[in-house]
Amino acid sequence: MYKTTHLEDWIYKKYNWLKIVSPEDINPVRICREFSIFLNYKELPSHSLEQVRFRSITIDSRLSKEQQHEEFFHELCHLLRHCGKHYMLPKAFLELQENQANTFAMYATLPYYMLQHYDLNEYDIVPFLSENFTVTESLVVKRLEQIKNRILLYKESKELNGHENSLICSSID
Predict the structure, then answer these.
(1) CA-CA 20 to 30 A from 26: which of 17, 104, 123, 131?
(2) How many percent of the chain have pLDDT more than 70?
């Protein structure tokens, strides 16, 4: 059993609102249109910008399409979930936001509600998902490991809780 995180649930609600139901629907142009974000591709490092009501994402056009896709969702996280100017943040807070944006990109590009329809143990699943979701194979591997670890953690938690309950019951008898 896989238990989704609050962030995954948040992304699912946004995607449901946008009617994103398949990998083909995870389209940066469409998402930007829905959120009134200006999107462009330039030979510059990827970044996002928000000034008053103007929001934009610039993606490095020199990257592969898979890397561009991942970078887009990283930058989208900054616009949708973060506030403050990066250059004014304390280092620890900046690192926290970068880690959150990386996690957001992983969940948004490979949402569990879509992945659950695939056999994730299939021997060629990594290249298959990489191609279908337009992400790097390394991100697919990371996401699959994260899913397997969360399932394992859930099972261990259930076993531990069951063991604790049996100890409580036997001590009452």
Answers:
(1) 123
(2) 91
pTM for the predicted model, two decimal places = 0.87
44 - beta bridge partners?
Answer: none
How confident is residue 167, by pLDDT bands cut at 50, 70 and 90?
Answer: very low
Contact partners, residue 25, CB within 8 Å, separation at least 6: 15, 18, 19
Contact 74, 66 (CB under 8 A): no
Are the CB atoms for 59 and 39 separated by under 8 Å?
Answer: yes
> Starting at the edge strand that comes first in sequence, how are the strands of the sheet with 47-51 ordered?
38-42, 54-60, 47-51
Q: How far is CA 92 from CA 22, 80, 86, 106, in A?
A: 36, 20, 11, 21
Q: What is the DSSP string of 100-144?
A: HHHHHHHHHHS-HHHHTTS-TT-TTHHHHHHHHHT--HHHHHHHH
DSSP 8-state class, residue 87: G
What's the first-to-final CA gap in the chain, in angstroms?
A: 32
